[in-house]
Amino acid sequence: MNDNARENLLELLRRFMDDAAAQAAQADIEAAERVLEASPAPMPSPQTVASIKALTRAAAARKHRRAQVFRSAMATAAAVIVTVLIGRHNPAPAPRPGVNFASILPAAIWESHDIAADDLDLAYFASEIRQIEAQMHAIDSQETEIRGADALDDLEMELTAIETEFWKGSY
Amino acid sequence: MGRSVELARIIDGCKSGDADSFAQVVDMYAGRCYGYFYRLTGDRDLSDELLSELFIKLVEKIGSYKGGAFESWLFKIASNIFHDHLRGKQRRRKLLDGHRAQLELEPDLNESRFSDEGQERLDRLQVHLSRLDPDTRDLIMLRFYSELSFKEIAEHRSEPIGTALSKLHRGLKKLRELMEG
ipTM > 0.85? Predict the structure, then answer.
């Protein structure tokens, strides 16, 4: 036993018992420790020590390799994170919303430079859409005498006709 | 002072993964740690195994050593390894109890192992130590082989210092009586 640990033993024992009992306990403990010291345990065999040294060498090498792999993985992860962050701070320009909305209009209107004619066409186009919308509502709410299948057929034909005539430039 | 400086240099070497530094630590502490395990188990083969496990753990955990008494740190790991071993032994015993009927029909491997151990000459101290309960034995050996203070031992065992002190006193007194009887 080391001396530092033994130095405080009596003081420590006095915290739990009176002085006489503490001194007796200290004497018991020290006498028993002398018995332990008089019977040293066997030492490990040289083969055991050599084997443990080999094991620690291998374990240290494994740990070193793991650390290297971990470092390279961290470097890769850091590079990916930096790339993502740069991408977030400098996003690619978003497509202009106007182009997307325009794509639902017939090309004939979109490409035309005749504003007066286009306005008329657009007004007609919009009224057709409103009419179709109203018919759809009527079908949904069963407020019309037109029954489901026939009404849908009529609508489909009407839409096809509008689309064809638009593409021909009739509107 | 010189020894502690030398030890600090060796530990730095261990932390940087130097295999020779680990070998030096093995040379310095294998004897004491082996004594600790041997006095707890009374089995040389098992002590060899536990000692190997201790130094492998040392390699794995050296990064977490943040200074202070190295011996104390090392023996806390040793004590944990012994307790893990005890817990494993208890689990195995429960498993064996569950299959007792089957085992009784088979050749008794445990008995043959004991007779192998019987070849090994056990000293008187070892015989009397084995009469103490494992917990008290661990407490006595931890106190004797490590440089842990009572406060550290109590903290490590998660019990009040007075309890640790009282168990140690009773255990050592009983051991002395057995040895002198």
Answer: no
